[in-house]
Amino acid sequence: MWQQYLTPQSLSEALDALTAHGAGARVVAGATDLILELERGVRRGVSVLIDLSRLPGLADIALGEDGKIHIGPLVTHNVVAASPLIQARGLPLAQASWEVGAPQIRNRATVAGNLITASPANDTITPLMALEAEVTLTSQRGARVVALRDFYTGVRRTVLAADEILTDIAFPALDPAVARGMFVKLALRRAQAISLVNVAVVVTTEPDGSNWAERTITGARIALGAVAPTIIRCPEAEAGLVGGRLTDVGIAAAAALAKADARPIDDVRASAVYRRRLVAVGVGRALRAIASNTQRGGLPERPIVLAGAGASPAQPALSGSGITTTINGVPHRFENAEHKTLLRLLREDAGLPGTKEGCAEGECGACTVFVDGLAVMACLVPAPRASGATIVTVEGLAQGDQLHPVQQAFIDEGAVQCGYCTPGFLMAGAKLLEERPRPERHEIQQAVTGNLCRCTGYYKIVTALEKAAAVTAAE
Fold first, then answer.
1. I need a labelling partner for 395 at 20 to 30 A (CA). Which of 12, 109, 158, 280 fits?
2. Could you confirm whether domain 307-475 is CATH 3.10.20.30?
C-alpha cells in the first residue's frame, strides 16, 4: 500500500507536502478509487497519501455573486444529491451524483475525485460538461481556472500538474424560468453499476409561454459519457435544436445526430453498436422529459444518504504517529496500522471480526461501519482516517443485553441466511432509522442498494427493516 500517510492542517501545508514528495504523492479525500487501484496493483509508484478530508472551508456548496454555483473539493456525492441548491439550479449534477455507487460510497467519494479519476464512464463529469463547468487548480505557483472541456487529454489523463490540487468546481446556475436539464444513466443494474452510456442535456428557451414544448429553443448542450475516450459534446445535435421546438420530429433528429457523434468501443459490458443505440435512447428520453417537465425523474427530494442524527463534521486530524480513535464508545490506540484499510484495522488490530470482508472493493456492503456518524464501507477507508474519529461497528449496535430493534427484527423475521452479509445490512438499516424513523418501503430499498445478499431475494430483509421501523416509531 502506501508508506506515509499525511494529514495536513491547511491547504498551504498540503501544497508544501505535494511539492516535497513529487510524483510519489497523491492527494486523497474519499480515496475510494485510489485504494482499489493500490490494492489491485494497477497504480504503482505511489508511496505518500496526503489526506485533505479534514481541512476546513473545502466542503461547501454556495451560489456566488458571479452567478455560479461553487462546489468545494471535499463535497461528497451524497451532499450534492441532497442539496436543494443543486437540485433547483443544477439538477443534472444532483441526478448523476445520486447514481454513483451506493449510499456508503457516496458518503466518502467526492465529485472532485470523480473528475480527477477521469474515466469516460464517470457519471458526474457528463453533467458538469453540459453545465459548462470550470475547475480551479491551485499550486504554490498560484491558481489557474480551466474549463472542464479543456481539462481532459485522454482516458484517465488530465492537465492537472503533479503539484496542483483541484480547489473549486464552478458552473453557471441554471435559471428555472428559461433553462432545464436532465441526466440519464443507462446501465446493467439499478444501483452499483458502471454506465454503459450516460447522457446530460441542458436546454434554454425564450420565455415565451408556459408550455415548454412550444417554446423556441435558444441554446442546447448535450454531453455523452462512456462513448469516447473522454466525455464529448454533440455540436451538430445542439445546433440542430436551436431555433426549433421540442417536437417529436425535432427530438428524433437531435437523438440521431447525437448517436452519430458517439465513438464507442466494444468491451465486456456492451458492443459499440448497442452503445450508439443507447445514445439515441438517452438523448430522446431527456429531451422528452424536459418538454413535459418530468425531468426530475426518480431523484427524491430527500434522498437517503445514511447519515443520521449522529453525523458530525470531520474533526481536525490528530498529530503524531499511531492511530488514536474511539470504537463503540471505547478509546483505542493502534501502532503500526497506518498502512492498511480501516476494515483490516478493525478485524486484525481491534479484534472486531463482525465487520466482514466480502469483496474488499466496495461492491457488497458487508463491511459497512459508521465513521463520525456516516455509513461507509470500511474496505475503502484508509485506517489513518480513523485517527480522532468516532467509529461504530456491528458489535456496538446492541446496548448491553438489549439488541438493536433492527437486530431483533432480523431474528424475528428470519432475515438471516448464511449471515455473511448480515452485519452490513444491520448497519445500513440502523443508520436508515436514525435518518428516517418512519421510512417508506422504497426508502428502505434505497438504503440497502449498497448491500448484496447472495442467499435470498431480499424480501425478508426488507420486511425486517419495516418491522424495526414500526417498533422504533412506536417507542
1. 109
2. yes
Q: What pTM, to 2 d.p., does this model score?
A: 0.96
More confident residue, 316 or 169: 169
Name the 3-class secondary structure at 333: strand
Q: Do residues 97 and 78 touch, judged by C-beta distance below 8 A?
A: yes
**Which among 200, 236, 242 has a CA at the least distance from the CA of 220?**
242
Q: How many CB atoms lie within 10 A of CB 323?
A: 24
Span 253-284, pLDDT tens digits: 999 999 999 989 898 889 999 999 999 999 99
For 138-158, give one letter per residue: b (16+ CB within 10 A) or e.
bbeeeeeebebbebbeeeeeb
Rounded average pLDDT over 169-187: 97
Residue with cell 426508502: 443
DSSP 341-378: BHHHIIIIIS--TTS--S-SSSSS-TTEEEETTEEEEG
Taking CA 230 as the corner, what is the angle to CA 38 and CA 252, rounded to the nearest 5 degrees? 135
What is the residue extent of each domain of the chain?
4-51, 61-292, 307-475
CATH class of 61-292: alpha beta
pLDDT at 308: 83
Answer CATH for 4-51 from 3.30.70.260, 1.10.8.60, 3.30.428.10, 3.30.43.10: 3.30.43.10
Helix axes 405-412, 459-474, angle to 10 degrees: 130
What grid cell was written down for 442? 422504497
Average pLDDT of the chain is: 95
Q: How far apart (Å, rounded) are the C-alpha atoms in residues 425 and 211?
A: 45
d(CA 246, CA 189): 30
Q: How far is CA 416 from CA 356, 394, 439, 441, 454, in A?
A: 15, 15, 21, 19, 11
Helix, strand or coil, per DSSP, at residue 82? helix
Find the length of the chain.
475
